[in-house]
Amino acid sequence: MSALLSVSDAHIAYGKVEAVRSVSLEVGDNEIVTIIGANGAGKTTLLNAIMGILQLKGRVVFAGEDIVRLEIEDRVAAGLSLVPEHRELFATMSVEDNLQLGAFRIARAVAARSFERVYALFPRLKERRRQLAGTLSGGEQQMLAMGRALMGAPKLLMLDEPSLGLAPIIVADIFRTIGELRAAGVSVLLVEQNAQAALQIADRAYVMELGEFILDGSAKDIAANARVAASYLGFTHEGESAV
Ligand code: ATP
Questions:
Q1: Which of 15, 17, 50, 91 sits a CA distance of 20 to 30 A from 44?
Q2: Tens-digit pLDDT profile for the chain (243 aa)?
């Protein structure tokens, strides 16, 4: 079976500086895949390049189509969606208007169903649909950013640091929703510094350091890896040395 997303030998540079080198990754149907790694490892750069915001050298096949030369909006139309690290909401617009922006390319009837789906997933957004986005709490803003990305009914949702700046109880809520998305047939590519939470929910994981993947495997195996535990989970597994 071919993967939903397949990135092969990706290189991404800012001018002469190569921020991502020789990276290959796959996300299957109905899979949650996480990329964990320290600040500056290149995770955001990789997601932005898959979305088409940055240029990438290599191959990116999505739903059977080579998308590397497609514009961002054509990638959205193909079923890719990104929730950016800083959420990028329109603070002076209402919740509903922010969601509407996520549906600007789709037919009215489809958009109506998207609103229903997003409000069922995030009842809180429905309650606050007339409120200005800038007055929402951090957790609600993350929900809105996810909701907007879901308006076009993507096959793959890419999430960049959804837990950033949120209290643990809200993070648990957001991660529960990510699990619900998979159950609803959406695949997820999750970039996270909160490795613990990400590895708990993901099926598979890639570990990124200095622009390269240094490890990959099932989330369970990666969580049990001594080096990962010491570097990203803040503890060492008993009886193992952390190297
Ligand atoms: P973070 O969690 O901080 O976002 P990250 O793993 O997502 O970290 P990136 O933001 O992708 O990492 O950064 C990867 C590398 O590329 C870093 O060395 C960073 O300094 C560099 N970089 C990021 N954006 C730019 C830019 N616009 N111009 C030049 N270099 C950049």
A1: 91
A2: 579 999 999 999 999 999 999 999 999 999 999 999 988 899 999 999 999 999 999 999 999 999 999 999 899 989 999 998 887 888 899 999 999 887 776 767 777 888 899 999 999 999 999 999 999 989 999 999 999 999 988 999 999 999 988 888 889 989 999 999 998 899 999 999 889 889 999 999 999 999 999 999 999 999 998 888 888 877 655 544 444
b/e code 94-104 from CB counts within 10 Å (16+ = b) = bbbebbbebbe
d(CA 62, CA 80): 8
Model pTM greater than 0.85? yes
Query: Is 5-233 CATH 3.40.50.720?
Result: no
Choice from 14, 18, 83, 194 to test ligand 1 binding pocket (greatest atom count within 8 A of CB)? 14
Tell the residue nearest (CA) to atom 1 of ligand 1.
39
CB 160, CB 44: distance < 8 Å: yes
Q: Is 42 in the pocket of ligand 1 (CB under 6 A)?
A: yes
Counting ligand 1 atoms within 8 A of each CB, the residue from 36, 45, 86 with the most, and so the one to mutate, is: 45
Residue nearest to atom 9 of ligand 1 (CA): 42
The structural domains of the chain, with segments of one domain joined by +, span 5-233
